[in-house]
Specification:
The protein has 2 helices and 35 strands. By secondary structure, it is mainly beta. Strand 9 and strand 10 form a beta hairpin. Helix 1 packs antiparallel against helix 2. The longest helix is centred in the C-terminal third of the chain and has 34 residues. Belongs to the flagella basal body rod proteins family. It comes from Fusibacter bizertensis.
């Protein structure tokens, strides 16, 4: 009789523990990044009343006779499946869309590392990105993430200029402007003038090796070309390039050279002034130098790189044409800016903390760090939505979001609890009924013992 009573007691304890876990799951149904747990039971050891025997020629074998002694808790497992997304539009709220955990620390040297899926972070008074409990969030180098809102960027001078867009074939004396920054951050506007009408060849010329139509197998091919003279002047209208004093010489004139499809070919000088049929035309490799009092000279290369995206001739992406559509050519400075201070920041899907400055520049300040484990279920909960590694979780693998096995970061959103209320209430019902049934085993065993005691009357 005592065996059945103790079996019932062991099962009551197991079901009570399961109810504790269910209660904790339901309590955290709205906890950011919470991972639900589940309980599984196993049979407790059995008492063997009679062992098994083998068969013989005259008699068959017999099976063992055993009485089970109750139930045990086999495991309490954490479900690490991703929870649903809650949009918040708060810049410091982050969610990992995939594998990985945020890494946080509670000491200055980041020796103690803890892991969490709860990305409801905030900034402290020193600009550190911290959890709601004040733990610092670490970057990919395992250093605390800090945004210095007093950070400034020095002014940078413009060193490259490109011409982008189209120049209508029939337009004359078209002018576009470009802003150039000096080393102090001051702006100097220049006018890029395309003088007169295009100069057009009357006889075809041998294909230019810089022509996008050039084919080494047909190097003797001939094409029509046109030329448009270029001058550069300041806002007062004074020509600064070429040198006006040298304008009477052939070397003092530069031309944008176009092929018969209207594609830019090169920046050249003509062998004979204003004569498109003269040969050869020679590639220009000049420099526009502007002297600025109190600042370094502004120097801009003037060559065919002006007509390529990012001044990248090797990349081969030409940005300037001369065809019969509206003129919209404009000068674009590729670099250079005024001085500025950090205004705000945002976080990209790659975990990059990008500072946005008052001068329009952007800079990657730090990159958020993530960690992953071969067996996340082996992590140990320590409260506060935090986990720590154990011998069974595997070695931590650190990296950046959206690389390798790590998920991307979704800014302005949070991962909610993965608790399934329907499943939890179902488990609650089965746990309650299991508890009731085992309590009935105990009361029934007690009644039988009472009958046994009454035999003496």
């Amino acid at each position: 009789m005592m065996r059945s009573m103790f079996s019932g007691v062991s099962s009551l304890r197991a079901h009570q523990l399961r109810m504790d876990v269910i209660g904790n799951n339901i309590a955290n149904v709205n906890t950011v990044g919470f991972k639900a747990s589940s309980v599984s039971f196993s049979e407790m050891y059995s008492q063997t009343l009679k062992g098994a025997s083998s068969s013989s020629d005259s008699r068959g074998g017999t099976n063992p006779m055993q009485v089970g002694l109750g139930a045990n808790v086999a495991s309490i497992a954490v479900n690490h499946s991703k929870g649903s997304i809650q949009r918040t539009d708060v810049a410091t709220d982050l969610m990992i869309d995939g594998s990985g955990f945020f890494v946080v620390t509670n000491d200055a040297n980041a020796q103690n590392k803890y892991y969490t899926r709860a990305g409801n972070f905030q900034m402290d008074e020193q600009g550190y990105l911290v959890t709601t409990e004040g733990l610092k969030v670490l970057d990919v180098n395992m250093k605390p993430i800090q945004v210095n809102m007093s950070d400034t960027k020095n002014a940078t001078a413009t060193t490259n200029l490109t011409i982008s867009g189209n120049l209508n074939f029939t337009d004359t004396n078209y002018t576009t402007t470009a802003d150039l920054y000096d080393s102090l951050g001051d702006v100097h506007t220049i006018n890029v003038n395309f003088k007169n009408a295009p100069l057009i060849t009357t006889a075809k010329k041998t294909v230019d090796p810089n022509d996008p139509k050039y084919d080494p197998a047909a190097s003797a091919a001939v094409y029509n070309y046109s030329y448009r003279e270029i001058t550069i002047s300041n806002t007062a209208g004074t020509q600064v390039y070429p040198d006006p004093a040298a304008s009477a010489t052939t070397a003092g004139h530069i031309y944008a050279k176009f092929n018969e499809s209207g594609e830019i070919v090169d920046l050249v000088t003509l062998n004979t002034l204003a004569d498109p049929d003269s040969t050869p035309d020679v590639s220009v490799s000049g420099t526009l130098t502007m002297t600025v009092p109190g600042a370094a000279d502004i120097t801009i290369p003037l060559d065919r790189s002006m007509f390529f995206a990012n001044a990248d001739i090797a990349g081969g992406v030409r940005t300037f044409t001369q065809v019969s559509k509206e003129s919209d050519a404009k000068g674009v400075q590729l670099n250079g800016n005024s001085a500025g201070s950090i205004d705000t920041f945002n976080i990209s899907s790659k975990g990059e903390i990008i500072g946005i400055y008052t001068n329009g520049e952007r800079k990657v300040l730090q990159t958020l760090g993530l960690v992953d484990f071969d067996n996340p279920a082996g992590l140990e909960k320590i409260g506060g939505n935090l986990f720590q590694n154990t011998p069974n979780s595997g070695t931590p693998k650190y990296g950046a979001p959206a690389t390798g096995s790590f998920g991307a970061v979704t800014p302005g959103a949070l991962e909610m609890s993965n608790v399934d209320l329907a499943a939890q209430f179902t488990d609650m019902i089965t746990t309650q009924r299991g508890f009731q049934a085992n309590s009935r085993v105990i009361t029934t065993s007690d009644e039988i013992l009472q009958e046994l005691v009454n035999l003496k009357r």
